[in-house]
């Protein structure tokens, strides 16, 4: 295998990749193309459409043309090489393939992607059946930024996996946002309200890591009225939200059509708009830059009209007051010996001063959290 396979697979489902469209998937579904695990096969496992394959397979083409599938990369970047794996496809693999790339901003629909400026990554080339077929990217595309790739197969057939190896290139517009996920369960955020949790818990939305399957997200029952579903999240501490991630990964036919975000200002009943109603795509990590605006302590996610979402991330800057409260809540719950050690090692207090501060607990909710405790959270 060539050197480029040591690079990250930018299309992997594990990194947020998604097969957003295919012109045909009659025998085997397109989503199999980007599974992170190697393809598998069991003989004589027939469904109502024939032998079950761990890959993408189209019907036998009886008219001119060719079949294709479009993959949105989990990590956009520069593609160095592609592997078209036809494992276990022996009499039904495509004789030839080609791969194109595109760089598209935002969250385009499949119809919008058809009008993208596609350019060649791998020229039309022959492939072997039941094999890993590696291809270096052509020279003219060697340094181009890619967000989506289109695999073309000539004329039809089956492909087990598509690996798109390269180097991730971060969009700098998103790097200016605060690094703290104010909603994260592990940072102290929690769900305090929810309209519906028929299939799974809304707390999954703010759980660590990425959802591996649909069941690790939040999903509502199907609505039969004119209302919409929502979740309310108490932030880890009051702060200004600058970047929101609404992840519908794995929700292919049951993602919400739209979503919006509002925040409640601390100490009041006032709600402010953080993200106006936005169209969502299925099986997609949506990232939205927000203007920041006022400090909020509670965020409400409205989905229209219903459906499922894998994760909700709300990155931003926690206020000094919020950080102080976070530090106090943590410090109040430490065993005395632990608290004394923290004050000595982190704040440089002598034993007597540290003991006085430990004895003064609880500090959460006090008018002024001591500077030595605020410093534990950078406040």
TrEMBL record:
It catalyses: allantoate + H2O = (S)-ureidoglycolate + urea. SUPFAM superfamilies: Galactose-binding domain-like. It is an enzyme of class 3 (hydrolase). InterPro entries: Allantoicase (IPR005164), Allantoicase_dom (IPR015908), Galactose-bd-like_sf (IPR008979). Keywords: Hydrolase, Purine metabolism. Its EC number is 3.5.3.4. This is Probable allantoicase. It comes from Pseudonocardia eucalypti.
């Amino acid at each position: 295998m060539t050197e480029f396979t040591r690079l990250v697979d930018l299309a992997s489902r594990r990194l947020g990749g998604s097969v957003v469209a295919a012109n045909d998937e009659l025998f085997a579904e397109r989503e199999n193309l980007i599974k992170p695990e190697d393809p598998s096969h069991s003989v004589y496992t027939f469904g109502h459409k024939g032998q079950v394959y761990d890959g993408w397979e189209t019907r036998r083409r009886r008219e001119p043309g060719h079949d294709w599938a479009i993959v949105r990369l989990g990590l956009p970047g520069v593609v160095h090489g592609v592997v078209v794996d036809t494992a276990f496809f022996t009499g039904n693999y495509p004789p030839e393939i080609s791969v194109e790339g595109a760089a598209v901003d935002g969250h385009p629909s499949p119809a919008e992607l058809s009008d993208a400026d596609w350019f060649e990554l791998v020229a039309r080339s022959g492939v072997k059946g039941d094999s890993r077929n590696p291809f270096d990217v052509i020279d003219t595309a060697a340094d181009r930024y890619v967000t989506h790739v289109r695999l073309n197969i000539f004329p039809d057939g089956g492909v087990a996996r598509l690996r798109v190896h390269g180097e991730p290139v971060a969009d700098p517009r998103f790097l200016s946002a605060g690094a703290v996920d104010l909603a994260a369960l592990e940072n102290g955020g929690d769900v305090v309200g929810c309209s519906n949790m028929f299939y799974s818990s809304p707390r999954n939305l703010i759980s660590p890591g990425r959802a591996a399957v649909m069941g690790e997200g939040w999903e509502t029952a199907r609505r039969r009225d004119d209302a919409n579903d929502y979740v309310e999240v108490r932030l880890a501490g009051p702060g200004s939200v600058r970047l929101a991630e609404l992840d519908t990964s794995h929700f292919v036919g049951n993602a919400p059509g739209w979503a919006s975000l509002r925040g409640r200002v601390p100490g009041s009943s006032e709600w402010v708009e953080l993200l106006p109603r936005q169209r969502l795509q299925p099986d997609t990590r949506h990232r939205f830059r927000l203007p920041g605006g006022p400090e909020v302590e509670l965020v409400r996610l409205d989905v229209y009209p219903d459906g499922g979402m894998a994760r909700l991330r709300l990155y931003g800057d926690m206020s000094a007051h919020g950080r102080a409260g976070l530090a106090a809540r943590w410090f109040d719950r430490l065993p005395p010996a632990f608290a004394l050690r923290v004050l000595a090692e982190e704040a440089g207090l002598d034993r007597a001063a540290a003991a006085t501060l430990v004895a003064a607990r609880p500090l959460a909710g006090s008018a002024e959290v001591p500077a030595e405790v605020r410093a534990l959270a950078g406040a």
